[in-house]
Amino acid sequence: MKGGGFYNKHSGWQQAVQDSMFEHVIKSAQTCALPLPGSGKCWRIMDLGCSQGRNSMAPISAVLKEVRSRAPGLPGTVLHADLPDNDFSTLFHVLAGEGSYTRTFEDVYPAAIGRSYYNRLVPSAELHMLLAFVTLHWLPQAPDWGATAWNQWHPAVTTEALAECRQQAAKDLLGFLEHRAVECVSGAKLILSMVATDSAGDAGSSVPALVDDVLEQLVSEGLVSRSSVSQVSIPIYCRREQDLQAVLDLPQVRADFSVEAVQLNFVRHPVELQYEAGEVSWETVVDAIVGGVIAIWEPSLLAPFRDAEQRQLVKQELPRRLRSAMILRPGEFGFSWHHLFTVLTRL
Amino acid sequence: MKGGGFYNKHSGWQQAVQDSMFEHVIKSAQTCALPLPGSGKCWRIMDLGCSQGRNSMAPISAVLKEVRSRAPGLPGTVLHADLPDNDFSTLFHVLAGEGSYTRTFEDVYPAAIGRSYYNRLVPSAELHMLLAFVTLHWLPQAPDWGATAWNQWHPAVTTEALAECRQQAAKDLLGFLEHRAVECVSGAKLILSMVATDSAGDAGSSVPALVDDVLEQLVSEGLVSRSSVSQVSIPIYCRREQDLQAVLDLPQVRADFSVEAVQLNFVRHPVELQYEAGEVSWETVVDAIVGGVIAIWEPSLLAPFRDAEQRQLVKQELPRRLRSAMILRPGEFGFSWHHLFTVLTRL
């Protein structure tokens, strides 16, 4: 994720996704385990893939409201986790800021963990609820998409590379669930969400193809080398519903969790709906799309360009060229995606 | 603190200070409360003013070793706290790195808190041990040192300003102890340490006066304005032993804590001892002193210079001129300070 608060400003889609999960979030907060009265324990929730925190404030506030109506005055902790290079300073400023749950709820204490959630993060039997919003499509390592492909929808991806990537993503998710099983108390609720594809594996958005075009332009104009572009690799796999279901059906997962819900939605980016309703200009849509691409993918796209000048060139040219390609073709592009989530109960 | 890992590289004195507290750290780990067997609770330690973490690894490893020998296999959490703008990414990389206690001890889980410790940080009765190393001389707000003074040793400080600052520092420490009293279980051990002065209020180091000289040079050469320099104010008060003792003697503090130790040391910077033994050159000492000044004070010294060019000028000139002033006068300058600590037990 891009730092300096940038991600917070360009995550409108991620907010829209939360609406599709909202009733499940509330129901989970109404039914999750609570610490036994007199045990002296706190109620603890973990927020995985927290990024800079803006999108965590509303759901965690909603959850705290439900939990506090069940157990007034129960102290709580909120553990926000993301990778070590996450922008934790922005997170802590958001946590102290106006929209934070810390302003509404007394006796709730946030902390942060800077470690991949593909590792153990907290002591065993510590968590009563766990949110992993719009994050489980990120894999611990970038798959080998083949010589020139850099994502699962790239025309150069082979069937074999894709099959191997699916298998790796299944293993990664299984490992994730094994860690979480140890960390959660019996009766804990987990809401796990990820960007997805439809059952054919199609993305909702044509933007990755447009990024391809721009990278191709930069190569053909001699501005960057083919070999650098070939090294681009984004550590994301957007699962199909059947990919998720296959993991949830594994006997070791069934032994730890009951599956309360699996839901796939095609979630429109709010700015596209506003455009269709004539409320905003096409330019606004283009800005939102380019902002989204840069916020999510810039670090991965820039990674192979280690030379400072080359890096700066790609950093400038990519958004500029994406913008000029889209601006002339109103209504043709979108940054809407399939979204998949599951609700689990720790047995 | 200066970010980007800089503080970690320039905190040799802070490491030397730990030696003066070492036996107390071990004894506290041997006698602190542990969670009751069968309570399902973890052993929890908080590390206040953690900065980028390097200096926390050794003492926390030493503490974990003692606790694990008392209660083998007891899971633990370590909460590292510092201000929101602390360099948490470096902290999390240090926590995952070679010298980290996470490499030596299983089932120990670090997290971070980005909030001033003059606020509540964790739920009540949560902590079994608390370290606040070389940090309690930092106040929540810069005192009003008067029109031109920017620290307690400045020739322009009035007796009244200094008295007011002492009073404010006492109030701040009392507030700090009140928060910690709620957070600690009965039997928790707290080791609280700070840069100090001798009973006359003298600093150990002549470096602040040299910084004065450089700032004065910059004004007289017309490079920066007098009014900007007058706005410099460092939020530090280095207490005398009697300042600390007066707070510890307050009835509300005595009701919460017993005082196990109060100790004042003059701690020499290791590089100065190496120089005196003929092991390093004077240039090495100068580099260490300038590095220390910049690591600790640069953010406060630069704060009034909001204009980018002015800021850059001071950022360059201050270390350069400090270095040239010192390099010609071998053995005349040092970055050694008085250090004061107390060991408390929560009643």
Can you tag this structure with a few keywords?
Rossmann fold, homodimer, 7 strands, 13 helices, alpha/beta
Give a written overview of the molecule.
Chain A is of the alpha/beta class and 347 residues long. The first copy, chain A, has a single domain, classed as Rossmann fold. Helices cover 46% and strands 17% of the residues of chain A. Chain A has 13 helices and seven strands. Chain A has helices at residues 6-9, 12-31, 54-70, 88-96, 101-104, 159-183, 207-220, 226-231, 241-248, 251-256, 270-276, 282-302, 308-327, and strands at residues 43-48, 76-82, 108-114, 127-132, 184-196, 257-267, 337-346. The first copy, chain A, has a seven-stranded mixed sheet with strand order 3-2-1-4-5-7-6, sandwiched between helices. In chain A, helix 6 packs across helix 9 (241-248) and helix 7 (207-220) packs across helix 13. Chain A is globular. Chain A starts with 5 loop residues before the first helix and ends with a strand. The mean pLDDT of chain A is 93.
